[in-house]
């Protein structure tokens, strides 16, 4: 075979710009047009002139590389279903390896267990609109299984608080973001999305989350989304494995009280009115179209 080592390099390791703009080196059948030798006067003027970089050189390639690596902060929100269970499991496993997302660093629940625990109506994933790549997921569950009879959707459990129009149920949030997609606003996007989804559900009044006290990143995220710290439990859980196996850790509970239903209805009405006003044009000025027949073609009277 040939001795050229470049042909043995896989396609994904080569420079893909060659596929778009292939280079055309000068061959013997196509000689280059050599310019005439410059005079001494031209050389002196060239030395005095300021040097400029052509944008077609390396600067353009570096800027192009910078644009390619720039991440967009626009995400799409989709429902987390079984079709995304492979991406969900991968993000879950990589998320717990740091030891701040769960009491285990290698035990991932099966999709069947996750699907049975999490509320199907309120679980989402964030995907990149360019390549449909899963960036993170968020879900919620009922934190108190002994109160499961209060979460049935029948007429017997249709009581609502007269003050806020909600049934007083609690949902606990679990959120994870892919390691390579952090610091892009994915967590804020997912957290605000599920809070908005729960606000539209009159069954729930409070959203909560339990965090490790030393997980500063998660604490800042929930604080940014207006969650308030309501409780702290010392030595609440014990790590099952990992580098901190057997260590008792403190937990803090943060909560977010959902907006009353009547206030949400008023906000929707105001938004609809603003949209109608912005979309509709102003009515034309009323013009009196009444015509007096005696004034038509009437010549002025001369005195």
TrEMBL record:
Tell me which residues make up the N-acetyltransferase domain: 78-263
The organism's place on the tree of life at top rank: Eukaryota
> Which molecular function GO terms apply here?
acyltransferase activity, transferring groups other than amino-acyl groups
Query: Spans of biased composition, class Low complexity?
Result: 267-277
Where are the residues of the annotated region Disordered?
1-70, 265-303
Pfam families linked to this entry: Acetyltransf_1 (PF00583)
Q: Where is the composition biased (Polar residues)?
A: 41-60, 278-292
Family annotation (InterPro entries): Acyl_CoA_acyltransferase, GNAT_dom
Write down what this protein is called: N-acetyltransferase domain-containing protein
Q: To which species is this protein native?
A: Sporisorium scitamineum
């Amino acid at each position: 075979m040939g001795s050229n080592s470049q042909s043995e390099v896989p396609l994904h390791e080569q420079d893909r710009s060659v596929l778009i703009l292939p280079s055309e080196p000068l061959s013997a059948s196509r000689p280059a047009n050599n310019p005439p030798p410059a005079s001494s006067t031209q050389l002196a003027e060239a030395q005095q002139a300021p040097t400029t970089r052509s944008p077609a050189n390396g600067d353009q390639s570096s800027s192009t590389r910078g644009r390619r690596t720039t991440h967009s902060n626009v995400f799409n929100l989709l429902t987390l279903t079984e079709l995304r269970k492979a991406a969900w499991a991968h993000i879950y496993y990589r998320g717990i390896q740091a030891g701040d997302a769960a009491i285990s660093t290698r035990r991932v629940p099966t999709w069947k267990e996750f699907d049975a625990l999490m509320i199907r109506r309120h679980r989402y994933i964030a995907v990149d609109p360019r390549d449909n790549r899963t960036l993170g997921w968020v879900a919620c569950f009922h934190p108190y299984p002994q109160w499961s009879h209060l979460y049935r959707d029948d007429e017997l459990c249709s009581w609502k608080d007269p003050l806020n129009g909600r049934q007083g149920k609690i949902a606990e949030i679990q959120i994870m973001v892919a390691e390579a997609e952090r610091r892009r606003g994915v967590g804020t996007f997912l957290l605000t999305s599920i809070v908005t989804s729960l606000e539209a559900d009159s069954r729930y009044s409070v959203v909560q989350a339990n965090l490790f006290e030393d997980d500063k990143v998660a604490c800042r995220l929930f604080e940014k989304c207006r969650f308030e710290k309501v409780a702290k439990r010392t030595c609440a859980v014990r790590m099952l494995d990992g580098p901190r196996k057997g260590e008792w850790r403190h937990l803090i509970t943060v909560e977010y009280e959902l907006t009353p239903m009547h206030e949400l209805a008023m906000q929707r009405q105001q938004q609809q009115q603003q949209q109608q006003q912005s979309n509709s044009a102003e009515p034309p000025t009323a013009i009196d179209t009444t015509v007096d027949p005696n004034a038509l073609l009437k010549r002025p009277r001369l005195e």
